[in-house]
Design brief:
66% helix; Serine Threonine Protein Phosphatase 5, Tetratricopeptide repeat; 601 residues; 26 helices; mainly alpha; two-stranded antiparallel ribbon
Amino acid sequence: MKRTGRGGSFPNSPWLLPSLALVLIAAAYARTPMMQLVFDDQTIIAGNVYITSPRFIPTYFTQHVWTNLMLARKSYYRPMFLMALLAGYQTFGSDPLGWHLANLLLHLGSSLMVYFLALRCSGSRFGALGAALLFGLHPAQVENVAWPSAITELLCTFLSLAALLCYLRSLESAAKRMAWRAAAVTFYFLAMFSKETAIVIPLVVFLHEWLGQPAVRPQARRQEGVPSTLQTRKKAFLGGVAQSLPFFLVAAVYMAARIAVLGAVGETNVQISTRVWLQTVPHVVGIYLAHVVWPAGLSAFYDYDYTQTFSLTGVVIPVALLLCLGAALWLAVRRSPAGMWAAAWMIMAILPVLEIQVFPRGELLHDRYLYQPLVGLSLLAALGIAALETRWPGGAQRRVLYAACGAVALWLGVATFRQTAYWMNNFALYSRGVSVAPANAFATTNMGAVLLERGQWNEAVTYFQRAIARTPNLYTAHYNLGLAYYEVAKYAEAEASLKKAYAILPQYPETNFFLGMTCFHTGRTPEAIEWVRKAIALKPGAGDYHFALGVMLKAAGDIAGARAEFLAELQHDPHHQATIEQLKVLDRNQPQVSAPKPATP
């Protein structure tokens, strides 16, 4: 039995088209089972002791997200992200397959919710299918899906969409309104504490009410429709305040906790003037739009920098293009409450990442930041398809529409499948980065680190030196160059590079540790001990630190101190074989003391 409606003629099954969307999206990510942990995954997942036990949960809520990893940025407060890492590690440890499947499932879940949200807005099943496929198959999404540590973006979006769908159900179900509303607020709480970009959701809820509830089923919608008089506008405004208030309160709780933990709303990594910011932002937005419209040449790294000077090509043309696109968007949606809602959501979702001062130089934009804005764009696509279906009720024009949408979906799916090849492993990822962004010092340094791991020492050193020439104050380049020299026993060169890294970021424990190891290998044991003690003070739970200090103390003749450090290492890793052997040596060499004889009367 078939049903003909606004979405065309389809079998009478509400799950046929969303199931088709999920199958096609999963096919585009068919390489997922073969992917390795990449990028920061070794630090954030495989080498993160603080996600190995639930006993660390209290620290998730009282420290910034990188505290225990000793990364420099203090702009992030994401307790639920750490909870997700804990849950993942408890479930599948460091197995890449588990992490990649978790990311893919979250992406599929969000794509499914985009389908049902688009169906509510457009009333078109085919439009909803187009929205789900645009969101799920767009190559810009690969960075989030293929990179396990990007689960924070996936989790935040999944929970935000769940919160919105529960909120919409609460407007339609009088009998279970409170239950749906409680679920919506709970999901939003989890989303807000997963990633700070969920801060836009209360505004999304407010606008939905103010615009006349365009995503609510017609039979449950308020009778006054879109406000047109002062009285109805006031009523809609007050309704928006009432409906969004619980979400704003959750956001306020999050911001209060964030400020209490971070000491401020966030941390600025680069100091730029307001003029430079105003000149750079249009270019950044233009690049994001270009990546959405023509997603070719995508990479984890780009060569974009701040726009320092006012010029025709650098500022005037980008601003003019954005104004033209903004005007065209307004003309397209001004008569559609659902269109205005979707467009506003898309714009609001991109605004947080335009605070480019929080990103290190050379890291102005990443495709992963398009994940939430693509929700709004996908809803606009559904509305556009629905409008064309209405204009072309049948015949050849409708078939052309469906064929064109199918061709776009196929193109996106193939492009996504090809893009996943660049995320298979670090060598593929950084090779792609260097190819797309040869002037990006982060890509160059990371490529050198991979080559060093592969034993290609000369090539690795060349990459590190190239990165330093481009960005003299890049910590990782100096640090990795120091490690390269250390591995081949060029201790003088290693010490020089490590001290340059230390001058840039003295709070990094690894630099202190390897400076200590370098001193130890050059016969300066007291100095080595001081460096390693500094490393331990910065990162008490780091593996091998206590063991190395124990070896140094033993060499200095402090047997008791050495024993204490070996025991401290075993508290961190009870199976640390080298430490166990050292303790056995100490026990064999310890003088045997006989028990005292009883005194003779």
